[in-house]
């Protein structure tokens, strides 16, 4: 992390993936409000350049190395923020990966994993690591930058819904993490929310129509600067209204039929073992020729103590 512009009482915000696009615009706007901003970047040159650009406008911005998929950079960043400030007030989980995807039926496990590594596991790891410093804040705010593609409601109702299964499922997981963490932290001074930013053309895959920067960043700024009586555990649209993300879940019909037969007659030992999956596919081909319904029923659950 470069030298800090100040160690005064201003609020401290960290934005992952803040060197460009929506993250960079959010960095500027928070800094313009007098908030001290740490631009997180996995690339030193991009990070330094972005921070210097804003610092040259007299904005309180510095760069911090953070690759959300690399635990040692996350740990180092936590140590640096702890040593410099002893707390973190605002964490904006903005980093994301959005690859050009084939149809869901042709999606590879590797591609879906890549999306989860950045968009979900990366966000989870960064949030977990910074939680002790957020607890030191008098008003901790966590903003998980999600997407309309992470909304069931959007996919069911919008003509702009796309087949982008890896990206979409990683954002759905992020929304549920937001909800769960907020419940866990209820009664603390930390608020956790997710939001859909406005559209901004940042890559060939993102929005085909761009909003203004103000609209693109509106929901993120709103949640980063929430007052103490503001909401927690919610998913907001770009207009800062609560999105109907989870409401439509109930419209999924219950599925029954083949799952009992499928599991009873088989010896499906491990869904994390590729060899075992192939064996199972061969077995079903031989026995039944086809599979009508696949219910992914396996879970792993730990008791929280
Ligand atoms: N743009 C839109 O219209 C739109 C719509 C809905 C939701 N969103 C969401 O809004 C957020 C910002 O979107 P954007 O379009 O501004 O994104 P973007 O321009 O693609 O920027 C993504 C940022 O994430 C960083 N990043 C990627 N992998 C990383 C890693 N492993 N560790 C740390 N940083 C990493 C990138 O860094 P590098 O420069 O090093 O690659 C980049 O700074 C994302 O969460 C996106 O899902 C955007």
UniProtKB/TrEMBL annotation:
<protein>
    <recommendedName>
        <fullName>carbonyl reductase (NADPH)</fullName>
        <ecNumber>1.1.1.184</ecNumber>
    </recommendedName>
</protein>
<dbReference type="Pfam" id="PF00106">
    <property type="entry name" value="adh_short"/>
</dbReference>
<dbReference type="InterPro" id="IPR002347">
    <property type="entry name" value="SDR_fam"/>
</dbReference>
<comment type="similarity">
    <text>Belongs to the short-chain dehydrogenases/reductases (SDR) family.</text>
</comment>
<dbReference type="InterPro" id="IPR036291">
    <property type="entry name" value="NAD(P)-bd_dom_sf"/>
</dbReference>
<keyword id="KW-0560">Oxidoreductase</keyword>
<dbReference type="InterPro" id="IPR045313">
    <property type="entry name" value="CBR1-like"/>
</dbReference>
<dbReference type="GO" id="GO:0004090">
    <property type="term" value="F:carbonyl reductase (NADPH) activity"/>
</dbReference>
<keyword id="KW-0521">NADP</keyword>
């Amino acid at each position: 992390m470069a030298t800090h512009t100040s160690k005064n009482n201003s609020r401290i915000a960290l934005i992952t993936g803040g060197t460009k696009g929506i993250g960079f615009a959010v960095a500027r706007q928070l800094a313009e409000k007098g908030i001290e901003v740490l631009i997180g970047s996995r690339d030193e040159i991009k990070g330094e350049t972005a921070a210097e650009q804003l610092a040259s406008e007299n904005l309180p911005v510095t760069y911090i190395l953070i690759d959300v998929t690399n635990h040692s950079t996350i740990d180092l960043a936590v140590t640096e923020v702890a040593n410099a400030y002893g707390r973190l007030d605002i964490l904006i989980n903005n980093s994301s990966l959005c690859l050009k995807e084939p149809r869901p039926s042709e999606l590879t496990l590797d591609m879906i994993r890549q999306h989860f590594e950045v968009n979900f596991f990366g966000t989870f790891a960064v949030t977990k690591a910074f939680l002790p410093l957020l607890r030191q804040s008098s008003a901790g705010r966590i903003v998980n930058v999600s997407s309309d593609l992470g909304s069931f409601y959007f996919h069911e109702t919008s003509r702009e819904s796309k087949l982008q299964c890896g990206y979409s499922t990683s954002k759905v997981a992020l929304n549920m993490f937001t909800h769960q963490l907020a419940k866990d932290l209820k009664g603390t001074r930390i608020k956790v929310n997710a939001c859909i930013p406005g559209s901004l053309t940042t890559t060939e895959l993102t929005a085909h129509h761009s909003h203004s920067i103000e609209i693109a960043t509106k929901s993120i700024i709103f949640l980063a600067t929430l007052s103490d009586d503001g909401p927690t555990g919610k998913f907001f649209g770009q207009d800062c209204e609560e999105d109907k993300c989870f409401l439509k879940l109930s419209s999924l019909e219950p599925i029954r039929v083949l799952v009992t037969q499928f599991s009873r007659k088989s010896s499906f030992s491990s869904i994390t073992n590729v060899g075992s999956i192939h064996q199972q596919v061969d077995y079903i081909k031989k026995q039944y020729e086809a599979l009508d319904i696949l219910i992914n029923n396996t879970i792993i659950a730990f008791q929280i103590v």
